[in-house]
Amino acid sequence: MYTISFKPTVFRAMKRLAQKISRSDWARLEQAIDSLSVDPRPYGVVKLSGTEFFRIRVGNYRVIYTIDDAGKSVVITKVARRSERTYH
């Protein structure tokens, strides 16, 4: 099992996001993030080229994170709606 942690800015952004999106979208995001503790490289994961970041798609949202296999941890670095600014 991997531990999941959030950068402080992501934690605050997720609080705001929870108030803006539908409950079903929020539930899908929570489920996708929780499942990373079991399998940090699920089907459909993409390693972002030139970085150590990985990305999973959850509907119109993207979860960007890093994996530390030695420390068995996943650090969520960004959760955002897909746009031109998502990967910057």
Helix coverage percent: 25-40%
What is the typical, i.e. mean, pLDDT? 89
| DSSP, total strands | 5
H/E element string?
Answer: EHHEEEE
CATH architecture: 2-Layer Sandwich
CATH superfamily: RelE-like
Main sheet attributes: strand count, strand direction, barrel closure: 5 strands, mixed
Q: How many structural domains does the protein architecture include?
A: 1
Shape: globular
Strand order of the largest sheet: 1-5-4-3-2
Indicate the structural class: alpha+beta
Radius of gyration: 12 Å
Which spans of ≥5 residues are poorly predicted at pLDDT below 50? none
Polypeptide structure, described:
With 88 residues, the chain is an alpha+beta fold. The protein has a single domain (3-81), classed as 2-Layer Sandwich (YaeB-like fold). 30% of the residues lie in helices and 32% in strands. It has helices at 8-20, 23-35; strands at 3-6, 46-47, 54-58, 61-68, 73-81.
Characteristics:
single chain, 88 residues, alpha+beta, YaeB-like fold, five-stranded mixed sheet
Per-chain topology:
Layout: E1 3-6, H1 8-20, H2 23-35, E2 46-47, E3 54-58, E4 61-68, E5 73-81
